[in-house]
Predict the 3D structure of the following.
Amino acid sequence: MKPLHFFAVLLSGMALGGLVGYLTRPTLMGIPLPLSVLLSTARGDAPFRAELASHLAMTIGIGAIGAGLLLFALTYLSNNRATRS
């Protein structure tokens, strides 16, 4: 597998994690927090900004870890097949 493919799979895993993070973002009284809270400078938005930022970072990280595990499995299987021949 080429290095560019590794990078593409890792980025796609991070994008998928970010999408999942967007869809499952924290709520306030049943309403999902808008992404504009991340760029807000209001003092009242600080706890919500921190919660939303940590949630998105966690889901993007989980997506990257999942992509890394997928890459490890694919590399292991391709190397295992190559040594059997």
